[in-house]
């Protein structure tokens, strides 16, 4: 049997599972089971049920599973619903600097909004005379009397020497508490924010540990021997034991799974990914094959948790419509699901008889939305999905495909209210719906200074066909739906890489500090089950915050196929490059390549002042042997070199491509193609750091090995 990767996505109503061929990435099967909130084992029962059913459907055995991961909304829901533990904080410090720790580790209760709160209690112990074990034990006894379930140990400069935090945690666990050191959650300076982040993490530890034990036991009982992985909020996965330490990393992991699918399955290089459900749409950005991150805010408090930058808008395939004064004034945020109404577009046309427009309030205090009521008294929601089907924008094989005739009948009273025909009414509904998405896209492009010419808009989720085809017709963006768009999130879980991020505050990091942080990140993902030969790391330095950051990721399995397997012809690679560059194949210059990566360049000339002035810029793309676009750049210089000349060539690139001014030097973003691997050397602020990272990443390069260096102008 083919080795398979299983991804499971636990939703509020249903738990979805997919099986993907580990080698070809072909989707083999998908199943959906009800989420088992009320079972004795909780949602773990549904996870095991979905995994068992999918193996049975494809006649696979537990031994065939080489990777199994699941995404969960439990951490997010716990914070939304206030299902959190009371946390006791033990602050520590010594000397004059330690006095500051008394105040900064006392973070008070954390308001989660919606009348929910994380309760905290605090104690501070001095380390001036060594570790005060008796005082810590007395504090733990008080915590028990105050119904504390989880303990945070937070020491001034604990990121430099965490031994005291670890000792407190040992004593707390001996007394039956869940416990975590603030240094485990973040290695960054900033005691108050680090402590607050650790408190949020600790508040969900007891519930997450309980669920993880049930899930792990169920999967082990199936006979699956590959380690159970959990989806992270940054689009990677971590081993379940790591989740038991840092459950905060799973917050917002649901939307992150869709981004992982866009990256790993749809191979989006530069794009905006729009995942559309029934109630809301999650919008995220990918640039140069990497998603964008931002610090998570919980209860209006900044934390040291980095999550994917995902913007959520209350419009989707099932959004309900508001009409006032003869015009459509809103689409969403309430949906047919919230109003407990069926979609008209999925009804039998014969059931939509003599429909009339009625007003409904999905929730108490809501404004009025429209629905249609039939002669039999049945009510149906009028939605963007219905509008898109009515206008013929939804192909029959799309997940959102419904009955256009049923939609047409439901839209007749809407059109009468608007004083127009049904097609115009449907267009107006989609126009209002799209107007909630378009400004978000424009803001993302402006915020990250993205080049619209390099971007593609990719739709995922079951409701994406309700909105994306209309965006394709009414904007200049390159818009399309992902393959298997309805299950892209679950596929993302199945294909996600083991990932971790390590950050430290360092001023002008040396080569040794860069290498140490990189090694720490690499060791972390290897420790969580990644195969050492698959691990890649990226290091970047933010001089404005003195923040050194290392990201590492790798696969749990070693891909054994050689570079020739799955390869496409040179003509097919050229076609892929032409599509990426939006250029005619005859206008593309190729030539620079390694064993697995090929560089293509096209010039684009724009004219102004009636053609009297013209400007030419180059666009560059990198395509691998399988025809997958790995990167797109504008105004990038291409240099070919060998291993023996690598350092000299990098020096030459820095001399030629840097931008010099009286006060500063802006370095180019450098990318080095080696074999089938693209090494990212961007994000460094000094020449010395660039050269150090080149030395670290390519220390084993052979003298005669062919390399290609791309330098993107700053």
UniProtKB/TrEMBL annotation:
<dbReference type="InterPro" id="IPR043129">
    <property type="entry name" value="ATPase_NBD"/>
</dbReference>
<protein>
    <submittedName>
        <fullName>Hydantoinase/oxoprolinase family protein</fullName>
    </submittedName>
</protein>
<dbReference type="Pfam" id="PF05378">
    <property type="entry name" value="Hydant_A_N"/>
</dbReference>
<feature type="domain" description="Hydantoinase/oxoprolinase N-terminal">
    <location>
        <begin position="5"/>
        <end position="175"/>
    </location>
</feature>
<dbReference type="Pfam" id="PF01968">
    <property type="entry name" value="Hydantoinase_A"/>
</dbReference>
<feature type="domain" description="Hydantoinase A/oxoprolinase">
    <location>
        <begin position="194"/>
        <end position="499"/>
    </location>
</feature>
<dbReference type="InterPro" id="IPR008040">
    <property type="entry name" value="Hydant_A_N"/>
</dbReference>
<dbReference type="InterPro" id="IPR045079">
    <property type="entry name" value="Oxoprolinase-like"/>
</dbReference>
<dbReference type="InterPro" id="IPR002821">
    <property type="entry name" value="Hydantoinase_A"/>
</dbReference>
